[in-house]
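seq:
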Amino acid sequence: LTLLTLTRRSSILLSQTVVRSYSEEGRKLPQELRSMMRDDWGAGLSYMEAMKNAVASENAERLKRKLPEDLGIREKKIYDQIIESRGKTGKVSGFDIKDNDGSLRGPWNAMISSSPEIGACIERLAHACRHNNSCPAELYECGILVIAAKKRSNFEWFAHEKIALKVGVQPETIDDIRQLRFHNPRGASDAQKALILYTDELDRTHRISDSTHSAALAALNHSEKKLVDFVWTIGLYSQIAFILNAFNVPLPKDAPNPSFLPNS
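struct:
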């Protein structure tokens, strides 16, 4: 059967299935499939409706925003900790962690919305990774960006691209990471290159080879403490990327979409 012979309802369902499968995998529809769906009038309507529904579903935030006046005592304590700690970092880096109604953006809403007990622990771990980290920020921010790009985590990229620029990571290095060019990224120092490859290998294979371990350790002046802190940090931001992606946490309004490449 061709799309032309299908009923409009069946055509819509088929189009939705096709579009959603490509969307979930982070791939674009092939041009020939786009043309085929658009050439037929009924299929064209179905295609546009499917695209609209897929985009709406993809962008729908899944966690209810908690307003300050709705918070219990424990939640309010975590909220205040986040504002005090992360709020300052956000402002320095050029973004606000709160919306106009006082609700928290990004992963911070998840920390208070449904699981404040675990959320409080994650917030304290994030605080430690930022303020008690022996690994230089320009190195662990490269690792965080690798995680954000590989997980296609829009908000994590939005926040840490700004922070990475602030701590001295070169724009061309950041752009190569966004495009998954981890081997010899432009503008990167030798230490940054070693830890970018380290992060990619650990995320991709779930192990680290002896040669990659040795290169990363040398990049950190043979400090095991710095390397352990680095791994704790990229592990934390893998976890945060899961939260952001699982609950469709949106970018702030007017924030640019990073346009990640799909992983092979």
